[in-house]
Amino acid sequence: MCENKNDIIKEFRIYSLATDPIYIGTGGYTIGRVDNTIVREPTTKLPKIPGSSLAGTWRYYVTLEIHKYFTNSDYRIKRENRKDKKDIFVNKAPKWVNNFVDNKYVGIKCAGKDDDSNINFDEAGDRGTGHCGHCIVCKGFGFSKKDKSWQGMIYFGDLNILLFPVFTREGTKWVTTEKSLIEADLLKNKKGDNEVYVVKEETEEGADDFLNLGWLYLSYKKEKKCISLDKVKIDGFRLEVKDIVIVPEKLFSHIVNSNLEVRTSVSIDPITGAAKEGALFTSESIPRGTVLYGKIRIFDKSVFAGISSELSSLPSEKYLESALRDSKHFFETLGIGGMTTRGFGRIKLELTPCEGDDSTQFEDKGEKNDAE
User: Would you put residue 141 in left (φ > 0), alpha (ψ -120 to 50) or beta?
Assistant: First the structure.
């Protein structure tokens, strides 16, 4: 559940759909069923997309989104003397790009790891390397220079599996747990008008029938639940309540880990054009069609602007929200995680304010919506 206890912290839900298998590796090789394993939650052993991976990728995409609005392509590379030039950004640039004046310092190096963190904050805006420390990317996601560090204003949670697709004799079903549905604010109470499959824990007594979830053959009973899937409308994807299977917590991890996508790959010898001997490896991934859920918080520090010199220019919460919304389309093409050139990584995201939040979804294009 989401709670916003004050006006300076805004919380948003993320519902996402994997349109490709998602591979976020642990690094290195392991001994077991697969060579390249993916990141898992330590307590549940469920695969996830870590908040650090989401934050790092989104930081890069916000930087790319800003760079497409420069009036001169040289500005995408050089920062020198930008402060003395007018009309750095095109007129059609959204307000979060054009109106936040310190975006004039932004460089492509503001995305990713700072490669020149040993210079002072005041020098950073005029140098062509490292984080500038001034733009909406550095202020929103954080930076660290020789004489000053900034925590950032956007806080990313992990994306955890909410609905996991599994092959059954009745077609593809999406497996979840009651706890996951409650956490994602999809299950209001236990009773309702929608019939769903509910897998029984141990006994077959009172079961309606049996259903295979991958290689597992389990008894189930159809029960009516009050499940609302209105929030899980990701682009053209629509999931029906009748396709949901609720399983016990103790089974969920086993079902997910038994039905991950496993691919076997091989390196190609550039001389012969054939498979290279001894270069065979397997990797696992979260399969396409998986629905994930997480949260983002934005700490609107702009309300403290003017208290000190370092807080004199900060982006508002609405500017940061617009930056995230306008740049999330890159996830649908460039993806997240590893092996994106091999058909992995594409994902669709929907960002929605939590109930009780006074934030509203809006398009911040050109003259629309003053977010001052």
Answer: alpha
What is the C-alpha separation between 297 and 320, in angstroms, rounded? 11
Residue 232, CA distances (Å) to 26, 62, 184, 354 in order: 29, 24, 10, 14
Write out the two tokens for 272: 């012969």
| Domain map (residue ranges) of the chain | 9-40+49-157+289-353, 164-260
Most confident of 106-115, 173-182, 232-241: 173-182
**Tokens 């911040």 found at:** 364
Q: What is the pLDDT of residues 219-243, one digit of tens each?
A: 888 888 888 888 888 877 888 888 9
| 345, containing H or E segment | none
Tens-digit pLDDT profile for residues 11-62: 999 999 999 999 998 876 666 677 778 899 999 999 999 999 999 999 999 9
Q: What is the mean pLDDT of the chain?
A: 83
**Contact indicator for 12, 353 with CB cutoff of 8 Å:** yes
In whole angstroms, give the CA distance from residue 278 to residue 270: 15
Q: Are 153 and 140 in contact (CB under 8 A)?
A: yes
37 neighbors 28 (Cβ within 8 angstroms): no
Q: What is the pTM of this model?
A: 0.85
d(CA 143, CA 134): 9
Q: How close are the terminal C-alpha atoms of the chain, in Å?
A: 29
d(CA 358, CA 354): 9
Q: How far apart are CA 363 and CA 368, in angstroms?
A: 7
| Residue 223 bridge partners (DSSP) | 196
User: Hey, what are 315's tokens?
Assistant: 């982006």
Rounded CA gap, 284 and 260, in Å? 6
pLDDT tens-digit profile of 249-286? Answer: 989 999 999 999 898 888 888 888 888 877 788 888 99
Inter-residue contact 105 to 122 (CB < 8 Å): no
Mapped onto helix, strand or coil, the DSSP state of residue 51 is: helix
Question: How is 271-326 classified by DSSP, letter by letter?
Answer: TTSSEEEEEEEEEEEBPTT-EEEEEEEEE-GGGGTTSSGGGSS---HHHHHHHHHH
Q: How far apart are CA 320 and CA 241, in angstroms?
A: 34
